[in-house]
Structures are given as structure tokens and as C-alpha cells.
């Protein structure tokens, strides 16, 4: 982690009033006794805007505040950049997260401290999910640094580093830009570091700097040409040789994709390996959507006791398994209950390979390793053949009687029918995790959820960002009522952006996922009239359609309307279900996670 602070003085010839924030006289700046003519558009603000557009950002998610207003002026003046104003900073951060998942990088802009500390939860989530998000904060006037002044939007101390110190643990680079002389360097280093590390970065820009022309911004920035990371050739060959020897002697090996396939940019190499070796192919829950589910040897989600039927049996009975980019935490391991053995595992991380209990190989990139390994493995379809023998097709939910209260499994049976290459699924933290895991994704269908951080309410903002980044897809968001109450107001932003998302609001009266881990009266929430709330937010502006459903007949009619007559609208469907209507997977997972959480202290 790196922190860089701009110096507090200008090395160049100072303005006559000795104010470092004063504009250059007569459109020029005195440097070493020479006069350089610079354009009024050669400003820090425009440079930052150019850079964002160059790296693929066409939308920034913001909440205005007095420290960032001038900066926002310059960002929106950039022809290729659109400002998406959000209702609060948390949702702006979640939107940048969702945008980065589809576009590869996202950006958000907030004000000093009150904005920064509000958005930091979303930035922490992006850090946990390895998403490059450029978090830009409007900072104090340069003249206030190094003084004993107390500023508004702070905790009342003459110390402006509180926000910076908070961001140091959830970003991979921090730049405090309070000096034009090194602003160009700091901004470029921050953005390039985000792209290289695939993590968020923090850029604080003093409020009086964005509009001042400066020679370092006098020409269009040259696009980044980031040096590609390379594998150590000897290490790569040794890792491939050791792994091939390990797997080629196995009788029924399998392969499992993990969430770090994304950050390693190794999804295609993983499929190349699967095509070559013939192994049974599974994904960890947090990697759903990264591996094509139409692959001929795909056997589903490996999530221990709550994964796809027959998947855990095949994976855990294998005599060798290769995990590409896994994250084993208490949630993904179902309370540490996976039946895996280290001596059977090849673990491939973005830049490291570990072979069983034996050797580890560093400086080996996952993409290179998987591609090279594909050329060295013998074809072995034994595990997939075993799966094919024991496989029994999924059962069909019991048919609903006329006007029978709607069940969750019937809801997702109908959502399954909606999926195509032109759709994407956003699954909120909660029972939607488990129900959406069971959806079979057609080729080209997007899928996102936040498993590592698991912040309830994430999906509302993430849906905004994802839908904004892929306007050709219709997003289907599955959100629980408890999560929706955390971030509901940014349905307003979806309307302003003319998004055509379909939201299924699952109203079961509380925090169902927490009920199954540890129940108590705190898991019951105040019921809202959700459709009326969205109608009030709509307020006759934009295209919005809402419907409340409580039986299958009403659901079918609502889906037909949302995908037909109202296909160009934001569609909000409130689904009324029983408070105890959960997936069987959540019941099992909740009890196991509860057991892990309630372990007594080790004896002292």
C-alpha cells in the first residue's frame, strides 16, 4: 500500500499575492523566468476527466458537496463523461462497484470527510471483491493545509488526515493532491495503480485546484500503456511440470473455478484448460457467472452441503482437484465444513501455484499457467462420467393451486424462464444468494453478487452501476425487503437514468438470512408499502411501473407485462411470501454458519 502527499508549496515562481491557489496572471504561468502559454482548458479537472474516459469510464457516480463542486464542473464538461447523481454516497460507491464489474473500472466523486466516510463501506466492499474503483474526494483549500484552522465537515480538529487514514486500509494507493506541480503525476499513478492491482484507489483534490490551468496539463494525456506482468519462465515451467505430474496420475480429478479468475483475467484460459483435460467442471458460489454454465462438463456450484446436487459428492470424492482463484472463508466453506484435503489440491492464485503439501511456485501468472497446463494434461473424463451416472434431474416445485399464496421456489421457476443473453442477474445478500445460485445461466447472461463482503443493500446501487455500464442488457435484480430498506431511495436514480431494470422485491417481513443464523426480535422489520413508495419516488417523472403480487397467477401476469407492454420501463414487482418460506440451502447453511459463529473460546 502506498500513500503519496503533494507538497505544500509551489517550486515555480509564485503569484505576487503569495497565494498558491491564485490563478496565473494573463493566462500564463512563470516558470524559471520563461513564459509558457497554456490553454484555459489545461486544468487538473479536465485532465482527470480525460483520464477517466481513456480507461473506459463514461459515467461517474457522485454526490455534490461544497468541496467538490468545481471539480464536478470540469468532469461534466468532458464530452465523453456523464455524471450520475446519486441520493447518497453509499449508493454512489455501490454503483461504481457494479459499474466496475461490467466495465472493468468504475469511478465515484464525493465531498470531504462527510462524503468520504459515508462511501468508505462501499469502497471496502470493492476492495474485498478486487474491483478497481477510482474514489475521488473534493478536499480542503490548499491554503488551509499546514494551518491550525478547523474546517466544517470534519470532527472539529485541525487535522485533515482522518479521512486519508481511514482509506489507507481499503485502497491500494492514496493521493492527496494539494499542489499543481505534482498533481499530474499523482493522478496518473493512482489510476494506473488501480488498474494494475485491481483494487480501489483514493484521490483527494483540493477544492481550489481543478479550474487552474497549468503547463503539465497543456496537452492531451497520452493513453496509459501499462507494462504487462510476465510470468517467470523457469517458475512457470516448473509449476506446470509438477502440476501435470500430480494430475496425470490421478484417477478422477476435477477442476473448480473461484472468484479470483476475474482479477487474474483468466476466465478464457480456465475454459481452455477444461476443454483440453475433460475434467468435471464446477465453480465456487462467488465465481458464478465467470465460467460458462453451458460447458459440456459443467456440473454446477461447489458449495459443500448447499451447492448443486451431486456436485459436492463428485468434488470431495475426487483424488485430485485444481482450484483456480479460490477464496475459502466461513461463508464459502459453509462454516468450515467442506470435506477437502490439502494434499489432494492444486491451488492456483493470480500469481502463485501451490501443489498439494509440496512445492509452491511464485511469480507465475494464473492465465499463463492454465494455458500452459492445458497442453500437458492427459484427457480424463472419469469424474464427469461418474457425475453423469449418479445425476438425477432437479425436481419440479409442486404446482400452485388457484390463488394459493405464492412460494419462493415458484417465483424463481418463473425468473429462470426470463433469462437470456440479453439479461443479467443481480442477487442481493440474503436468501437470494441461494435461490439465484440455482438459476441456470444461458450463454451471455450476466450474474453478480457480493459474497466476500456481504453488505446488505449493496444490490440497489450495484444495479444502477451495472445497468448503466451495459445498456444493451436488461438487469433482473432480486432484493429482499430488509436489504431494500437500507438503500431504497436510489430507485430515484434508476428513473433519472431511464434504466429498464426489473426489480423483484421479495417481501417476507424481515432479515431472513439472519433469522436462520440466529433468530431474535431484531430480525423483524417494519413492513412498508413498497409499490406505493416506488410510485411516490416516480412522481410522474420518467417511465415506471409497479405491481404487487401474492399468487402465481398475478406473478405470471406481472412478468408478461414487464417483458411486454412495459419493456421500456423500470418495473418494480413486490412479491409477498411467507416469512418462513426460504430455500432449503439457506436452512442448512444458516445452521452451519451459526455453529461456526458460536464456537466457545479455546482453552487457555
Automatic annotation (TrEMBL):
Q: Which UniProt keywords apply?
A: Decarboxylase, Lyase, Magnesium, Metal-binding, Pyruvate, Thiamine pyrophosphate
InterPro entries per UniProt:
DHS-like_NAD/FAD-binding_dom, PDC/IPDC-like, THDP-binding, Thiamin_PyroP_enz_cen_dom, Thiamin_PyroP_enz_TPP-bd_dom, TPP_enzyme_TPP-bd, TPP_PDC_IPDC, TPP_PYR_PDC_IPDC-like
The entry's free-text remark on the cofactor is: Binds 1 Mg(2+) per subunit.
Where the record annotates domain Thiamine pyrophosphate enzyme central, the positions are: 240-357
Required co-factor(s) are:
Mg(2+); a metal cation; thiamine diphosphate
According to the entry, every stretch annotated as the Thiamine pyrophosphate enzyme TPP-binding domain falls at: 450-575
User: Where is Mg(2+) bound in this sequence?
Assistant: 481, 508, 510
GO cellular component terms given for this protein:
cytosol
* Coiled coil spans: none
Q: Name one GO molecular function term.
A: pyruvate decarboxylase activity
Domain (Thiamine pyrophosphate enzyme N-terminal TPP-binding): residue spans on this chain: 43-148
- Which reaction is this enzyme known to catalyze? a 2-oxocarboxylate + H(+) = an aldehyde + CO2
Record-level GO BP terms = aromatic amino acid family catabolic process to alcohol via Ehrlich pathway; response to decreased oxygen levels; response to stress
Q: Does the keyword Iron-sulfur apply?
A: no
Which PANTHER family does UniProt cross-reference here?
PYRUVATE DECARBOXYLASE (PTHR43452), PYRUVATE DECARBOXYLASE 2 (PTHR43452:SF20)
Q: How does it assemble?
A: Homotetramer.
Similarity comment:
Belongs to the TPP enzyme family.
Q: What is this protein called?
A: pyruvate decarboxylase
Protein's organism? Tripterygium wilfordii
